[in-house]
Amino acid sequence: MRINRIYELISPHFRRRRRREFERLMRPDLSRSILDVGGTEMFWVESGFRGQVTLLNTEASRFGASGVVQRQVVGDGCSLPFPDGSFDIVFSNSVIEHVGTWERQLRFAAECRRVGRAFWIQTPAMEFFIEPHLIAPFIHWLPRAWQRRLIRNLTVRGWLDRPGPAAVEEFLNEVRLLTYGEMRELFPGCPILKERFLGMCKSYVAILAPDAPAATGPADTALEPGSP
Known about the structure:
Rossmann fold, single chain, globular
């Protein structure tokens, strides 16, 4: 899709910043096993990480001999094919908003908590004024019937990819952005990192750090542009 060219220009900055914070808080090293739900090998190649990484996606992806990722598994993030506590860290970057319904998001979150002794789950914030998949302001705050009519002609994704009615409906059925309150409900008692851009909350990250006791109440932190 042509929209991917835009993402290739914008995403590296946010990925680098997010990766630094992940490394600071989660302390990944060669001794820790990591499950990346819905991710890519390139993320771990770019990070320079050398460890025990398993990728899980709904379809097999291009898988190289980077030496970074140990194995690739085809599966559903809402029904992970692993025993309880199988991984030291479960990592997921901008995936939980793509699983469809609230019920499936509940299952996705529960599965990440079940198989990971620690986790890092990131998702775009519903409260941010730009819808990141469409690259358009405010459209995600409108009723679905209005979005259905506007996506093709009033979003960057619509201008570039010209989706037909079926593609628009597929997008609306797949993408469900999460609010701060919903992230609290999905990951009860866990700290929520707030990524900020231009002073506004752009995305959330639910965190349970390795060896940390489960949180018992709200504990939020903010990641500002340019932070170490």
